Description:
Elements lengths: L24 H9 L2 E4 L2 E4 L2 H8 L4 E2 L4 H5 L6 H8 L6 H11 L5 H5 L2 H13 L6 E3 H6 L2 H10 L6 H11 L7 H28 L5 H7 L9 H32 L1 H9 L4 H11 L6 E5 L3 E3 L2 E3 L4 E4 L1 H5 L2 H4 L27 H18 L4 E2 L4 E2 L8 E3 L1 E3 L2
Parallel strand pairs: 2-8
Antiparallel strand pairs: 1-2, 3-5, 4-12, 5-8, 6-7, 9-12, 10-11
Amino acid sequence: MVSGVAQDAIPYLDTLDPDFNPESAEVAAARRANWYARTPVGIAVLRYEQVGAVLGDRRFRQTATMGLLARGITSGPLYDWLDKMIISTDGEEHLRLRRLTSKAFTPRAVDRLRPLMREVAEELIDGFVATGECEFMADFANVYPARIICDMLGVPVQQRATYREWANDLGLVFSPRIAEQRERVENAIAGLFRSVDILLDSRRRSPGPDLLSALIEAEEAGDRLSTEELRLMVSALLFGGQDTTRNQLGLAMTLFIEHPDQWRLLAEQPELAAQAVEEIFRIAPTAPMNGRVAAEAITLDGLHIPAGTVVHLVTVAANTDPDVFGAAGFDITARRPAPQLTFGGGLHYCLGAALARAEMAEALPILARRIPKPRLSGPASWRPPVGITGPRSLPLTFA
Length: 399
């Protein structure tokens, strides 16, 4: 139990409800009432100051398996895979993995990929621009980030469509309906691991200029990644570099359709791209909520949080906290008083943040220039609003 305030005076949010929406009026009302809410399995932190404090406090441990445990998945290939990923490690082990891999994701390393990003974006748009219509997710968002991450890893061209499907299936792990999709995800893990083992064997015999070869060679004080760690790292990179970015592109397009003046502005002033990307991540993050567990008893802002308490961080609520951002709507020209928290913070700040920012910043101005006045030509379909969210389909017409 969490103590400090009479429990019946604290808002309650059912975060385990498959229809729970972190962007709902219910969450906004709870944020107005208090900085946290009760949930079926702990608390939900709703305001910017407290979310930032938890992100920066190493006593709150990240555990990616929290959603699996809440839905009765406590063992098996799916659980083992997620439990061993870099996002589930902490302390010295996490720092070790970051030291061995972080050089591949510095802003300088990512900047070398920008010409490729622009080339791929132009090529994909060439495929549909003359028709004046597209299914944005299938024709652009699903393919663009997959091309980039597969090129980085050195995946053979003939295998890239399969890798893209595996990445999409891995993204289901954070779905509130994961119990129903478990077999599909476990099949993707098994297929990916078999393929990665073949690639690892090839790169060990004949290294190339790709990221996989760099990960094999990565060394820190005589330490290297094991074969299992390489498998896990590739799956993490594939998931993070494909599924989250494709959904973020879909959410970005949805935002711009709702704000056509901002789309027109981006086409006219492509130099606003980096600022536009930060605003998109603030307003419409594809991961609107993540979690931590208190590793010891902690007092936060007068609230006693016992060891073992699950803490949901409702990032999208923090990013739009009126005490910090006022009533600020979507505006790519605005200078915000505080940074968005979508990439996390502290020890678990997103390893691929620079890559995600660059992919979005290169693609969006090209899209804005080449597909003016986009609008929906039919109903969009959506993933659940928790976990990794975004459009499944987004049919568009444009001028």
